[in-house]
């Protein structure tokens, strides 16, 4: 059964990379195979799907649709265009802007908010938006590990290790993950500057777009505030972030219907939700649940201990770089959820403080997803936005930016965590 699970899993990811236009159907078909072969019991299918992520994606896509309709992204694009001398600095500024937002909001939500700005800039300059949106996605993934509310993996770590919001900034009198991520962001920004060094097209100033409805912008700000507040409240349901996003979207729809006296914008907002992406992620969650149930991930985890021969540096190195490798192809949410108890067990066996392994795991798993287009939910969402605008992005095209960006950020984080926490 375990061998069959490995074969199905490998075939699934080969097809996901080879046939990007059919990813959702491939993931769902693979999920059905895992269920019908009995690898994943029927009674565990529902629980393997991270409904918090699914609801958050649906809610934020809806809110962002209203945000776009309000013309606010166009105004933001105009403001950025006014400040930047050329396309290179416009792309870098957008990626840094996305990173700042992503430190406090889920990276998928960040991509859904910032990508429309990049699309608008590209349309104004009549250039492809592909590279700028890829840069936004990878920057969002990077900063997702900076705070407790930045990414689902951070939320998983906070719950498992009992860390609060401020622990990500300073923990036990030492710099926390926030500062490690900022150092990685600095290194990766230099990578972006090199990659986009040839994008020197001048940006001409244009008349600023006028925004007539600020309520969607208010909804976005309120979403950020509520997501942060929810991180401090005890005994919240596991889907609280998703509930917040969907509830605010519903508020936006209701308000729009009553003020405009028609349902056109509301219906368009519902239609703008990327159901292809949602189906893809749902299928991937079930696939990962299947290989977890089969014991494949657990066996890989045990291999860490065997290979390390009780050497902390070797174990730490294995956890960081193996996490980078696996998260490039496996969604990092179920991976982190599986590996957290493994790292705790390793720390207990070695009688060491587990936090160096926790932080190494989060750094490798969160940033590792930047290497491939299917390694992180934000990447999938970004490619979904591009697909809707008529741009199909190959794995090679994505990795041309994702791989050097990831290697720069992870290497800096890997060294810093060891120096601070070893």
Automatic annotation (TrEMBL):
<feature type="transmembrane region" description="Helical">
    <location>
        <begin position="312"/>
        <end position="330"/>
    </location>
</feature>
<protein>
    <submittedName>
        <fullName>TRAP transporter large permease subunit</fullName>
    </submittedName>
</protein>
<feature type="transmembrane region" description="Helical">
    <location>
        <begin position="26"/>
        <end position="42"/>
    </location>
</feature>
<feature type="transmembrane region" description="Helical">
    <location>
        <begin position="49"/>
        <end position="68"/>
    </location>
</feature>
<feature type="transmembrane region" description="Helical">
    <location>
        <begin position="217"/>
        <end position="234"/>
    </location>
</feature>
<feature type="transmembrane region" description="Helical">
    <location>
        <begin position="398"/>
        <end position="421"/>
    </location>
</feature>
<feature type="transmembrane region" description="Helical">
    <location>
        <begin position="88"/>
        <end position="121"/>
    </location>
</feature>
<feature type="transmembrane region" description="Helical">
    <location>
        <begin position="273"/>
        <end position="292"/>
    </location>
</feature>
<keyword id="KW-1003">Cell membrane</keyword>
<feature type="transmembrane region" description="Helical">
    <location>
        <begin position="342"/>
        <end position="361"/>
    </location>
</feature>
<dbReference type="InterPro" id="IPR000802">
    <property type="entry name" value="Arsenical_pump_ArsB"/>
</dbReference>
<comment type="similarity">
    <text>Belongs to the CitM (TC 2.A.11) transporter family.</text>
</comment>
<dbReference type="InterPro" id="IPR004680">
    <property type="entry name" value="Cit_transptr-like_dom"/>
</dbReference>
<dbReference type="GO" id="GO:0015105">
    <property type="term" value="F:arsenite transmembrane transporter activity"/>
</dbReference>
<keyword id="KW-0813">Transport</keyword>
<keyword id="KW-1133">Transmembrane helix</keyword>
<dbReference type="InterPro" id="IPR051475">
    <property type="entry name" value="Diverse_Ion_Transporter"/>
</dbReference>
<feature type="domain" description="Citrate transporter-like">
    <location>
        <begin position="13"/>
        <end position="362"/>
    </location>
</feature>
<keyword id="KW-0812">Transmembrane</keyword>
<feature type="transmembrane region" description="Helical">
    <location>
        <begin position="177"/>
        <end position="196"/>
    </location>
</feature>
<dbReference type="Pfam" id="PF03600">
    <property type="entry name" value="CitMHS"/>
</dbReference>
<dbReference type="GO" id="GO:0005886">
    <property type="term" value="C:plasma membrane"/>
</dbReference>
<feature type="transmembrane region" description="Helical">
    <location>
        <begin position="367"/>
        <end position="386"/>
    </location>
</feature>
<keyword id="KW-0472">Membrane</keyword>
<feature type="transmembrane region" description="Helical">
    <location>
        <begin position="240"/>
        <end position="258"/>
    </location>
</feature>
């Amino acid at each position: 059964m375990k061998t069959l699970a490995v074969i199905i899993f490998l075939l699934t990811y080969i097809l996901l990379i080879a046939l990007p236009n059919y990813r959702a159907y491939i993931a769902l078909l693979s999920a059905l195979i895992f269920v019908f072969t009995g690898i994943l019991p029927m009674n565990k299918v529902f629980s393997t799907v991270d409904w918090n992520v699914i609801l958050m994606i649906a809610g934020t896509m809806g809110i962002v649709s209203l945000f776009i309709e309000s013309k606010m992204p166009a105004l933001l694009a105009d403001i950025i265009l006014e400040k930047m001398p050329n396309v290179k600095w416009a792309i870098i500024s957008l990626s840094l802007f996305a990173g700042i937002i992503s430190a406090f909001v889920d990276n998928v939500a960040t991509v859904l908010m910032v990508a429309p700005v990049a699309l608008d800039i590209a349309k104004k300059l009549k250039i492809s938006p592909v590279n700028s949106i890829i840069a936004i996605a990878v920057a969002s993934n990077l900063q997702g590990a900076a705070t407790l509310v930045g990414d689902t993996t951070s939320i998983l770590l906070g719950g498992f290790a009992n860390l609060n919001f401020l622990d990500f900034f300073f923990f036990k009198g030492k710099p926390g993950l926030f500062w490690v991520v900022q150092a990685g962001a600095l290194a990766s920004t230099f990578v972006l500057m090199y990659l986009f060094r040839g994008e020197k097209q001048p940006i001409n100033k244009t008349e600023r777009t006028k925004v007539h409805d600020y309520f969607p912008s208010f909804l976005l700000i309120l979403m950020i505030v509520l997501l942060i507040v929810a991180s401090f409240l005890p005994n919240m349901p596991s889907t609280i972030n998703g509930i917040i996003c969907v509830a605010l979207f519903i508020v936006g729809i209701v308000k729009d219907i009553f003020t405009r006296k028609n349902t056109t914008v509301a219906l368009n907002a519902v239609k703008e939700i990327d159901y292809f992406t949602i189906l893809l992620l749902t299928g991937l969650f079930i696939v990962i649940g299947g290989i977890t149930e089969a014991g494949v991930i657990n066996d890989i985890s045990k291999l860490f201990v065997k290979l390390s021969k009780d050497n902390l540096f070797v174990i730490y190195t294995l956890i960081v770089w193996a996490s980078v490798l696996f998260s490039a192809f496996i969604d990092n949410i179920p991976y982190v959820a599986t590996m957290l108890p493994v790292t705790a067990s390793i720390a207990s066996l070695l009688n060491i403080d587990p936090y160096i392994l926790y932080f190494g795991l989060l750094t490798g798993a969160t940033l590792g997803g930047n290497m491939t287009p299917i390694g992180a939910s934000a990447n999938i969402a970004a490619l979904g936005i591009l697909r809707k605008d008529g741009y199909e992005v190959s794995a090679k095209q994505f990795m041309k930016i994702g791989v050097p960006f990831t290697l720069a950020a992870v290497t800096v984080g890997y060294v810093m965590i060891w120096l601070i926490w070893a």
